[in-house]
Design a protein that fits this description.
Layout (H helix, E strand, L loop, with lengths): L4 E4 L6 E3 L6 H7 L6 H6 L17 H18 L4 H16 L3 E3 L3 H10 L3 E6 L6 H6 L8 E4 H4 L6 H10 L7 E5 L2 H10 L4 E5 L13 E4 L10
Parallel strand pairs: 1-4, 1-6, 4-5, 6-7, 7-8
Antiparallel strand pairs: 2-3
Helix pairs in contact: 3-4
């Protein structure tokens, strides 16, 4: 079958932080919270990859409550008492929901070229409830047909549900679709396991050492996608 659809991850693939931004554990350390390596590993966001949270995604309110409950439990794991948790929670909210993004230099031109070839372009991201404002910040909102987030679907990549919902929203099939992203399991292994004809791993000079499975290709940046589709 011919390739008709190109689906992108968002953060780390199409866009990055507009300004240097500490990770959540780095932020807490800066605020005087003792985040041990064990705690940092236990609460790293990648621990959520593949997780289903359908009940939490019933509405924006339930999702944000679910998200904040995780932050509170992380603070408790760091030994933070309830007395000090409120101020720290405010800092986390600003960090996680209030930062700004910018597109990678080649992103806009690549998306425009794909669309000029008649390909349909979508976004599938492990992201919070709203992605549209960040697409606008990155100045690519008019270059993608739609964007699907884990918060709204109720499952995070690499769970099959988020891929199927994205394809359904695009009225597309996996056998005619390519997935592009920078994360190994969510953007390469997951899509291939769910029938995508190809997965493109964006390396950006990190020197990834993972062996590429059949159907996977590694490129330096988004420009490399143009030679594949």
């Amino acid at each position: 079958m011919a390739i008709r659809n190109v689906i992108f991850d968002f953060y780390g693939t199409l866009a990055r932080a507009a300004h240097p931004t500490p990770s959540l554990t780095e932020l807490l350390s800066m605020l005087g919270v003792d985040v041990t390596p064990e705690v940092a590993d236990r609460w790293h966001v990648e621990r959520l990859d593949g997780v289903v949270h359908a009940e939490a995604s019933a509405s924006r309110e339930t999702y944000e409550e679910w998200e904040e409950d995780r932050w509170r439990r992380m603070l408790a794991d760091c030994g933070v008492t309830c007395k000090h948790a409120a101020n720290l929670m405010n800092a986390i909210r600003v960090q996680v929901r209030g930062f700004h993004v910018a597109s990678y230099p080649e992103a806009g031109a690549v998306l425009e070229e794909l669309r000029s070839r008649g390909l349909r372009v979508g976004v599938c991201s492990n992201w919070h409830w709203d992605l549209d404002p960040y697409l606008q910040q990155a100045e690519i909102s008019g270059l993608v047909e739609l964007a699907v987030t884990s918060a709204r679907v109720g499952a995070r990549k690499d769970h099959p549900l988020i891929y199927s919902r994205t394809l359904e929203a695009m009225d597309a099939v996996s056998a005619e679709s390519v997935f592009v992203g920078d994360s190994w399991r969510p953007d390469v292994i997951g899509p291939l396991a769910n029938g995508f004809v190809r997965a493109v791993h964006i390396d950006r000079g990190r020197g990834a050492q993972d062996d590429l499975p059949p159907g996977a290709i590694r490129v330096a940046d988004l420009s490399g996608v143009l030679s594949i589709v």
